[in-house]
Amino acid sequence: MIIQHNLASMGAFRQSKITTTRKAKTSERLASGYRINRASDDAAGLSISEKMRVQIRGLAQANENIQDGINFVKVGEGGMQEVHSILQRIRELSVQAANDTNTLGDRTAIQLEIDALSVEINKIAYGTSFNGHRMLCEETAGGVAGGGGGMGSGSNADVSDALSKRATYGGSGKDYMSSAIHNPDGTIVFCGNTTSNDQDLDGIGSGTGIQSGWVTKVGTDGEVLWTKKVENGKETSFSSITATADGGYLAVGKSDGSPFLAKLDADGNTAWTYRFQCTGTDNNANNAYLMQDGSGHVFLSIQSFDGNGIKDGRGNPLGGSALGGRDAIMMVIDPSVNPNDDYDAFEKKAYRIGGGNNEQISRLYPTSDGGYIGGNYTTSSTITQSNNDGSSSKPPVEAIGNGSHSAFITKYDKNGDVEKVLLFGDDHAPGQYHNSGENINQIIETASGEYIVVGTAKITDTVGTDAPATDESRGDNIWVMKLDKNLTPIWSRSYGSSRDDAGSCVIETKNGFVIAGSVGTMDGDVTQKPGYSGNNAWVFMVDKDSGDIIWDEVHGGSGSDSFRFIFEGGNGDILLGGNSSSNDQDLADKNKGNADAWFLKLDGQTGGTAPPSGGGTGSGSSSVKNKLLHLQVGAYSWNSFQIGYADMRTSAVFGENTVLNVMSHSAAEEVISLCDEAISYVSKQRSRYGSYQNALEHLYDGNAITGENVSASDSRIADADMADEMVAFSRDKILEQVNSAVMAQANMTNQTVMQLLQG
């Protein structure tokens, strides 16, 4: 029997402390409802739970922001609704005034009402506001958005009008650039055609003056490294060029109306040329791209205008029998083989893609799955791949719209065979001339695996898979469409002026898609630039998610200027190339005579000024400048949504300095036309605001669902199971009582020592 160490009591005391600590934690969980109250409870679980709570609380606040945005849009759309009503009344009065049965007094009374209504339009534009933001007259609260000539949405600096490099190429003849490639070392090789024999082309070629194919390599600052003519004794031009596996280049185009190929080495020396024999004219080799399978082969598109007239090197119809009308011919060739020596080894595959009418595929670009995407236009509704071995197949075709002349977008697998076709287009409006419909100039794959299509069309803005509608009022516009991985449209937008515009090329940057081409005049979406006239080269950036213009710039001079290629250089520079006949403004003292190829480098690529797409009334007015309200619509920094301001002032609705005079029949008729244009303008802005509201409502619902699901996940990690905790609490309470009883009994045992001493 010992008394220095009461081991039984010590053990009971130790267990009692464990039980008490455990009971305290259980009590805390019961009181808080959480399983994890501090990091020691579950370190990994705490980390996961806190990240989920960040998302949950961020989504909750984002939905508050979205509701504010919806209210903002509703206020703006309500103001535009009243402007619509006023415009309808002005038009009604104008129709009344156009009747010569009215007396001078009648027309005077009508004119007074029209004048009063015009004043009301401006009152609505300036009086419609939400928390200080006057969304219908370009005014923001606190100067958040940039004004005319100021900083654009989300930008850190303006695009510099000071060009770091301006250069022209050619001579005193006509020199045109069609296409270009950007080499890994930063050099650029472009192709086209020329009639010059002097300046850059002095001593190059035979000097016959016949149009020749033209290939030039320039350095990172636009300096000429070499320039070459490719002559065939006939009118020759190149439409596309691609690098080959041996370090050389393959230029494709036409010569005397026949498809024409030229293989050049790394220094531009001609290795061989080949002209397909044909019976018709205007047949053209449109585009070529080095295949991604490492074979060194090239995927090539050719346009056949004459059915079975184009012959291969064996004398057979190239790509098999004609499908009807004009066909797109697709080929896989080996550029290391001279087709003049061994055509069988040169042609690896050839087939036709199209229908009973006309098709063209003018551009091909590689995709991340090893395949290719290309397209241009079609007038057929049924598409077939017809191989030169007599076999045929019908690829899946999705048709959106009912176009007599549709965009023809074709996805190919790594072997060059058709995977899927998208037809996108619309018939022209009844009674109106529809010239060219939808045409594609470039398709690229985005970093997220989607596609951006750039071309020219007469269609209005379209969202999702809605059928496109024709808009003849503004002529041809630059057309941009975003597709998902399955070639389903996400959005489709048109940009430009009241005259014919053309979209040529696009690149993706971290801030948006930068698109280049040409515009017929400076109104609509185009920021005016004093001293520039004629057809101007135009470059602009759009938001990746919405397609809204972020900034735009006009370049060129008083002649005809356009962009044909665009690349992203180092330090955020943008490299642009095209054609120009100007000798002033950006091209002052640069013109070499007549038309020249043109190289330009911009110092930066963010900021600038621009109106949102869809502006312009056809009356020479410039629509609202780029003012964007940014909404945080998600839990993370990249979850942003932009709402563009509208301009409902009479200067935008009717045009600057427009007078609404109905004091004669002819004057009243003109006001009727102005009202039609103004109603169309306001309708477009209202539709844009309606799409904002729909998109925000979908975002709200999506956030709510996401927040609910994330909350459920967080609950499984962090919440306490009250039933389990009560069982544990009851157990620990009993153990705590038992431990006290055991300690009491252990202490009683030592009392027997005193009995021994007393005995």
Can you offer a commentary on this structure?
The protein is α+β, with helices and mostly antiparallel strands and 759 residues long. It is built from eight helices and 34 strands. It has a six-stranded antiparallel beta sheet with strand order 10-11-12-13-16-17. A five-stranded mixed beta sheet has the order 14-15-19-20-18, with no helix packed on it. Strand 7 (249-255) and strand 8 (258-264) form a beta hairpin. Helix 2 (43-97) packs antiparallel against helix 3 (104-127). The longest helix is centred in the N-terminal third of the chain and has 55 residues, at 43-97. The chain is extended and about 140 Å long. The two termini are 16 Å apart. Residues 141-162, 430-436 and 605-626 have low confidence and may be disordered.
